Amino acid sequence: MVPDDRVLVVFVPSPADFDIIRQNGWYRIPQKAAPKGFISEYFAFYFGQAFGKEKWAIHYFAPRLGHELLYRRDLFPDALDHPRANEIYYKIQLGDIVKLNQPIVSLKWRRVTFLHTTMDRFLDAREINDLLIEGESYVDRKFTTLREKNTQG
């Protein structure tokens, strides 16, 4: 991990979705909803309301190892009749999941689908707004954005 590593915070709506991440080592993003810059070095997982006491917070993150495009039916062969079975998804392969010593919480409910930050901000953050703070001690966001443009062609 280096300070300018890109971290993409992604929404995890249910414990069943987090089980897929933990047990299978991947996260899915519909191609039509994929944010620019999803090819981050790390993915952090923001839990939705279904997580009870852990809701509206980031407790875990993992390195991105790679990605591929697949139909949803290929991700979930037991759900061929799903309404989005024929839609294309990014399957993001993940490395070992790391639990934060202290979760990054949202002090009030907010809808977070995707949020870009840098590793230095992520490691210092105690609440969601901290992921966006600026300051001399943090990596220059312009550099990170330029690097992102260069890696995506």
Structural description of this entry:
This protein starts with 5 loop residues before the first strand and ends with a helix. By secondary structure, the chain is of the alpha+beta class. It is globular. The protein has 4 helices and 7 strands, in the order βαβββαβββαα. Strands 1, 2, 3, 4, 5, 6 and 7 form a 7-stranded mixed beta sheet that branches. It has one domain (6-67, 93-146). 24% of the residues are buried.
Strand count: 7
Give the helix level as a range of percent.
10-25%
Binned strand content: 25-35%
Q: Main beta sheet: strand number and arrangement? A: 7 strands, mixed
The overall number of domains is 1
**Number of DSSP helices?**
4
The helix-and-strand class reads: alpha+beta
The average pLDDT is 87
Distance between the termini: 24 Å
In sequence order, what are the helices and strands, one letter per element? EHEEEHEEEHH
Radius of gyration computed on alpha carbons: 16 Å
Low-confidence spans: none
The geometry reads as: globular
What labels would you give this structure?
single chain; 153 residues; alpha+beta; seven-stranded mixed β-sheet; 4 helices
Give me the secondary-structure topology.
Layout: E1 6-12, H1 15-24, E2 26-30, E3 42-47, E4 57-71, H2 72-75, E5 88-94, E6 98-105, E7 114-118, H3 119-124, H4 141-152
